Amino acid sequence: MADEDVVDPGAGSEPARRSKAAPKVKARARRVVAIGGGKGGIGKSLVSANLGLALAARGSRVVLIDADLGGANLHTCLGVAQPKVTLSDFVEKRVERLEDVLVPTGEERLSLASGAMDELDAANLKHGQKAKLLRHLRSLDVDYVLLDLGAGTSFNVLDFFLVADVGVVVMLPEPTSIENAYRFIKAAFFRRLQAMAPDDDFASMVGRALAPRDGQAAMTPLDVVTELRKTDVEAAARLEHALAGFSPLVLVNQARTRADFDIGPTVVNAWKKFFGLELGYLGAVSHDDAVWQAVRARQPLLQVAPDGAAATGLLRVAENLIALER
C-alpha cells in the first residue's frame, strides 16, 4: 500500500566517495501488513493474532501492533495478560522507544505492542503523535509488522491502513459485510488521494466524477483518468499514480458453504469492473466452533485447535502472504 521510499541517486554521491566510513543503514521492517475491514465483529483480531503466530512459527520475526487504540483486545486472542505498558506510553513519551512497549507472547519470535485501554481519547491521536507512531513502527527491525486496526473509517484507521505495504480487508460472506468492506476500501482510496494532494480539491473533484448522475452509471477511476487527460494532464497523472499504488487484498472469514468460499474472487472481480481498482484475494477461513472456544479459553486458535478447519485456513492465508514476496 505504501509507496516505496524515493532516493535521489545523485544526492550526496561525491561526499560519499570521499568518506572512509560506510553510511549507516537504518533498520526497517521488511513488510508492514495492515488488517482492517470497517465494522467490528468480523474477526480482525483473530486473524491478526493467528497470522502472527503462523508467520513466527515459520521462522519470521514478527511484531503485532494492536492499533485498535482505546479498545485493545489482541492480547486476549494471544492468551497474554493485559500488558502494563502500552502504545499510549510511547505516544505520551513515558517511554522513549517503540521497542520499550513490546511484550513477549510465548512464541519466541512474536512480540506484541498493545493498544491503550485506559484513556477515552486514545483513539484520537494528534497529528504529530500519529506521525511519530507511523514512522517508528516502520523502523522496527523485524520481518513483519502486523497492524490490527480498529473499526470504522476514521482518519487514524485509514492512515494506519495506508502506511502498510500490504492492506488486508477482512469481510464476512454476508451482504452487509461486503458493503462495509467496499465502503472501507473506497474511504481508504479517497484518503490516499487527499494525502497526495492536500492543498487542492483533487479528492473532492474525483469523488464528484465517480458519483452517478442523472441515472447514469458512475465512472470508474480509470474513466476519470481518461477524462482528466483532456483538461488536466498533471491531475490525471496523480490519479494514475494513486491507482497504481493501491491494491488491497480481500480475506473472507467464517465461510460455511462453497458459495462462501467463492465469494472472495467474485467480489474482487466485481469491484474491479465497477470501481476500477486492482484488488487481490488472500484466501478464506472456515467457520469453526473452535474459534469461540479458543476465545473463551483466552488461548490462540492455532494452539487450541491447530488441525481444525479455521486454523487450516489461517495457515493457508499465512502461506499466501509469504508468497507475495516470491
Question: Strand fraction band?
Answer: 5-15%
* Structural class category: alpha/beta
Distance between the termini: 17 Å
Report low-confidence residues grouped into runs of 5 or more. Answer: 4-25
Order of helices and strands: HEHEHHEEHEHEHHHHEHEHHH
- SS element count, helices: 14
Characterize the main sheet: 8 strands, mixed
Number of strands: 8
The helix fraction, in percent, is: 40-55%
Q: Report mean pLDDT, rounded to a whole number.
A: 82
Q: Indicate the radius of gyration in whole angstroms.
A: 21 Å
Label the overall shape: globular
Strand order of the largest sheet: 3-4-2-5-1-6-7-8
Give structural notes.
This protein is α/β, with parallel strands linked by helices and 326 residues long. The chain contains 14 helices and eight strands. The protein has helices spanning 13-18, 44-57, 74-78, 87-91, 127-138, 155-163, 175-196, 202-210, 221-231, 233-244, 258-275, 289-297, 301-304, 309-323, and strands at 31-36, 62-67, 102-104, 110-113, 144-149, 166-171, 249-255, 280-286. It has an eight-stranded mixed sheet with strand order 3-4-2-5-1-6-7-8, with helices on both faces. It is globular and about 60 Å long.
What's the gist of this structure?
The protein is α/β, with parallel strands linked by helices and 326 residues long. The protein has helices at residues 13-18, 44-57, 74-78, 87-91, 127-138, 155-163, 175-196, 202-210, 221-231, 233-244, 258-275, 289-297, 301-304, 309-323; strands at residues 31-36, 62-67, 102-104, 110-113, 144-149, 166-171, 249-255, 280-286.
Provide key terms for this protein.
326 residues, alpha/beta, eight-stranded mixed beta sheet, 14 helices, 8 strands, globular
